[in-house]
Amino acid sequence: MSDWMMGGRRPRQPEEGYDVMQVCLNGHQITASAETLPNQRKQFCDQCGEKTIDSCPDCKASIQGYLKGILSVRSIKVPNNCPSCGTAYPWRQDSIANAIEVLQMEMDAADAAAVPTLVNMVLIEGPRTEVSALKLKKLLGKLSKPIYDICINVLSDLMSETAKKTFGI
Q1: Domain of 152, in residue numbers
Q2: In the predicted model, is pLDDT for residue 55 greater than 50?
Q3: What is the DSSP letter of 35?
Q4: Boundary (domain end) residue, out of 87, 117, 139
């Protein structure tokens, strides 16, 4: 017979759902346990000084942290998009805008106009990912070597696995 059945303390039931992650606007994780361990919260990032958030700026859903009731020593990845509304978090939006800006640096107006659509298509796994990656790769071939290298570095962190394979990354 369990101790709790004999009048002892009832075993603690694990909480359901996810804890809350706190992240700075540049994408640095502050804590993945902001709800359970509120003393780990910070108003500003100690790495870059940027303001921190713990919910989607669009729909206000909490950023998912650790699964409650599970003890883990592994860190979890900072998400790119809100699972509730699909909107890219601020750090992802900034990375995408930077990639587009770098790509457009040496392009003529027609090529530069195609870049935002192509970049957005290579970020996700979808039916147009491979074709968009091929078109983007062709555009990148027109750039000087230094700009090409920078573009590949910036894009490699953002691209879907299909697009990376198309680029040979």
Answers
A1: 90-167
A2: yes
A3: T
A4: 87
Amino acid of residue 153: N
Tokens at residue 80, please? 């790119």
CA-to-CA separations, 119 to 64, 67, 91, in angstroms, rounded: 26, 32, 16
- The tally of domains found in the chain comes to 2
Same domain, 100 and 53: no
Cα–Cα distance, 96 to 90 (Å, whole number): 10
- Say yes or no: 46 and 62 in one domain: yes
d(CA 117, CA 130): 13
Of the candidates 86, 80, 74, which has an alpha carbon nearest to the alpha carbon of residue 33? Answer: 74
2 and 53 fall within a common domain: yes
Strand pairing category for 52-53 and 22-24: antiparallel
pLDDT 10s digits, 56-94: 999 999 999 998 877 666 789 999 999 999 999 999 999
